[in-house]
Specification:
Strand order of the largest sheet: 1-2-3-4-5-7-6
Structural class: alpha+beta
Largest sheet: 7 strands, mixed
Helix content: 25-40%
Shape: globular
Number of helices: 3
Length: about 160
């Protein structure tokens, strides 16, 4: 396959109100509503919107493939740690290593903003996410928040 034939996958930091961020979140929330036993309502979660994800303390990334948004994720400041939320890869883009790439990019950007600790949580049915976090050096810790949809809490030192 020549360079011209390969899909152009790019990562971009965007404003939380970016239309591609909104498109990714809409698809993500729909998937969660289908996967979670109790359904999903973003307004009941610990991050009902993307406020706090803007610089300097936050960051929101969109990954596009040939210009189409296919993944997203971000972090905001929470008790001195970078708190990752809304990490998602479109079903049609899974298996391309984008989840790992997105997580590594979020860690890099959190480190560059001075964070020493990064945290996240996930719901029990998201086994792929749990495996990704564990294989990326995250350790399971006691609950650090009361996120309604969380069953597993993780953190990683960024030293």
């Amino acid at each position: 396959m020549s360079g011209r034939d390969r899909p152009a996958v790019e990562v971009e930091e965007v404003a939380p109100d970016n239309p591609d961020a909104a498109a990714c979140l809409a698809r993500y929330f729909g998937e969660l509503a289908n996967r979670f036993e109790s359904g999903f309502d973003a307004s009941l979660s610990s991050a009902p919107d993307l406020s706090g994800f803007e610089p300097p303390g936050g960051c929101f990334l969109v990954i596009r493939n040939n210009g189409q948004p296919i993944a997203c994720g971000g972090f905001k400041r929470d008790d001195g740690a970078a708190y990752i939320k809304r990490m998602w890869v479109a079903d049609e883009a899974r298996g391309m290593g984008l989840g790992r790439r997105l997580l590594a990019e979020l860690e890099k950007r959190a480190r560059s903003r001075g964070y020493k600790l990064i945290r996240l949580e996930t719901e029990r049915s998201l086994t792929e996410a749990q495996a990704l976090y564990r294989s990326s050096g995250y350790v399971e810790v006691p609950a650090f928040n009361d996120e309604l949809y969380a069953h597993h809490w993780f953190e990683k030192r960024l030293d």
